[in-house]
Amino acid sequence: MEPIVLCGFVIVMFGVWVEFEPTVRVVVKIIFKSKFFTKVASDSTVQKPVHVYVRKMPICVAKAFYC
To answer: What is the pTM of this model?
Structure first.
């Protein structure tokens, strides 16, 4: 791309952002406060205990890797 075209594109995109920023912020705020989003976000942050993922390694396997 020519540098002048790239500069023009950046200027146009900045103008579009300035024009539509309040609308985008309102839409994002509505989405973040929706019941569906809060349910999905709260479910994903639940931590499970370590013992669910890690089991004792058999002694023969442990010796092979840690000697």
So the answer is: 0.47
